[in-house]
Amino acid sequence: MKKGLNKVTAALLAAGFAFSLQAADITIAYDSDPTSMDPHEQLSGQTLEMSHLLFDPLVRWTKEFDFEPRLAEKWERIDEETMRFHLRQGVKFHSGNELTADDVIWTFDRLKESPDFKAIFEPFVKAVKVDDHTVDLVTSGPFPLVLNTVTYLFPMDSKFYSGTTEEGKDKGEVVKHGSSFASTNVSGTGPFKLKFRQQGVKVEYERNADYWDTQSPGNVDNITLVPIKEDATRVAALLAGDVDFIKPVSPNDHDRVKAAANVKLVTEPGTRIITFQLNQDRFEPFRDVRVRQAVNYAINQDGIVQRIMRGFATTAGQQPPAGYFGHNPELVPLFDLDKAKQLMEEAGYKDGFKISMIAPNNRYVNDFRIAEAVKAMLARINIDVDLKTMPVAQYWPEFDKCDADMLMIGWHSDTEDTANFSEFLTMTRNSETGRGQYNCGHYSNPKLDGLIEAANLETDLPKREAMLQQAERILYDDAAFVPLHWQNLAWGARNNLEAEPIVNAMDFPYLGDLVVKE
Questions:
Q1: Could you say which DSSP state residue 428 is in?
Q2: Which UniProt keywords apply (predicted)?
């Protein structure tokens, strides 16, 4: 324990954190911090949680997966291709500028150009100003997921982000993994303002005194986010009272948190799929379906869930979890070591080969341990894996370059819909539309692409579900990727934090609504 507390103290002192807390000031320890303050630079959980702190969406998901009005106080369908949104009046950005339809349209246009987000907004053709507080979003045809999609439209302050910097750079430019005005400067409408940020050390947020949502029960004045990569160190910080809220809690530490005084474990069923991609563009043997199938047959998903995840996950044989529209109950994990060896021999690789693999070590629960287990499993079919793990801030630039033969990625559907998995992970890569943005397997199947595109225009729900299930069958038979499990979620909190109402399966707690009891 003493050694653990020394590590905690070192981490918090490095962040400049003082050990006295006021009633409505909290410190959070996460495994990683946001890579940028630009809500459109990186489509990731850290970015989305940051967006809910500093910005606000038009609509947001409730804990029960219903739609809740936010900056749009109501909406109505005008015709098959047009949804009208009525904005709240009197909402101010952190700069003092008032939110108008112009800001929504400016943000919409920026999303359509963002490498990470444009695939989500690809079905939309334009945003039209009706008046200062009314906007029409127009799709290219009937589209069943308009509300799902606008949960990712966080209006930005168009006046604040327009113009050029002293260096002559466009303030509104989206720069992947680079320094930009929007990555370090913020003017949103959210419950908190950015006070201070040092990448990899700490982020400080202060309450927005002019926040529009006066009905929010949240009473937190200041939040300090400290990234602590090590699971055990993060838990030690909570148990010592040095931090108030942590994420994630590794399955190995659940009993430790449950048994401790003054803290609690808060859990939610998860929908994030953890996978490995097989890079066909970089490693030629992965172009052979028999080799891809062999890799799938060699990996024991149930063993990973039981031994590494301690049962706190659900084995996966496809992208969407049970309960999602398009989940196919026939598609189950394939583990069969003899079959894997047979397929390798049939493909001419009985003696195996060597591959490179990359995985983060602070993004998903037990990510590096899972990668090590997969490496060991593949050795049984003579695949020698050169594994490299790294912090997520270093991982995403490497992943974006598809710089390995086998790559780990987790994905939570941005629209809470099955099609979104394929739009980003398995559809043919297309830089113009954004389709396949995170498809580092370079899998390409025109039939799959056509099914997903057709499903996104189909308003007959039984027909749409059949299309999505057929798409999952194609991916399964092609062994397009390696599904591992759907990751459940766990947070640790001090007992005086009412964390249960603000956590959700999307994995971005609504911290603006967090109540700290006296």
A1: P
A2: Signal, Transport
* CA pair distance 212, 502, nearest whole angstrom: 19
CA dist 392 and 473 (Å) reads 31
Crossing angle of the two packed helices 2-14 and 231-239, in degrees rounded to 10: 90
Given phi > 0 = left and psi -120 to 50 = alpha, else beta, which region is 355? beta
190-269+489-516 CATH pick, 3.40.190.10, 3.40.50.10330, 3.40.980.10, 3.30.460.10: 3.40.190.10
Residue 356 phi, psi (nearest 5)? -100, 150
φ, ψ for residue 15 (rounded to 5)?
-85, 0
Contact assessment for residue 265 and residue 495, using Cβ atoms and an 8 Å cutoff: no
Query: Hey, which CATH number is domain 56-175, 3.40.190.10, 3.90.76.10, 3.75.10.10, 3.40.50.300?
Result: 3.90.76.10
Q: In which residue are the tokens 């066909």 written?
A: 280
Q: pLDDT (tens digit, 9 = 90+) per residue, 205-227?
A: 999 999 999 999 999 999 999 99
Burial class (CB in 10 A: 0-12, 13-18, 19+), 10: exposed
In angstroms, the CA 518 to CA 203 distance is: 25
Cα separation, 476 vs 439, whole angstroms? 16
Q: What angle do CA 437, 442, 443 make, to 5 degrees?
A: 110
Q: Return d(Cα 444, Cα 435) in angstroms, integer.
A: 11
Q: What are residue 463's phi and psi, to 5 degrees?
A: -65, -40
Q: Using one digit for the tens of pLDDT, what is the confidence trace for 31-82?
A: 988 889 999 998 888 899 999 999 999 999 998 888 999 999 999 999 999 9
- Which amino acid is present at 165? T
Superfamily of domain 273-487: Dipeptide-binding Protein; Domain 3 (3.10.105.10)
The parts of the chain modelled with pLDDT lower than 50 are 1-23
Q: Is 96 exposed, middle or buried (0-12, 13-18, 19+ CB in 10 A)?
A: exposed
Strands (E), 62-191: 67-69, 72-79, 82-87, 124-131, 134-139
Q: Which of 118, 96, 97 is nearest to 107 (CA)?
A: 118
Secondary structure of residue 394 in the 3-state scheme: helix
Q: What is the pTM of this model?
A: 0.79
Task: Specify the pLDDT at position 459.
Answer: 83
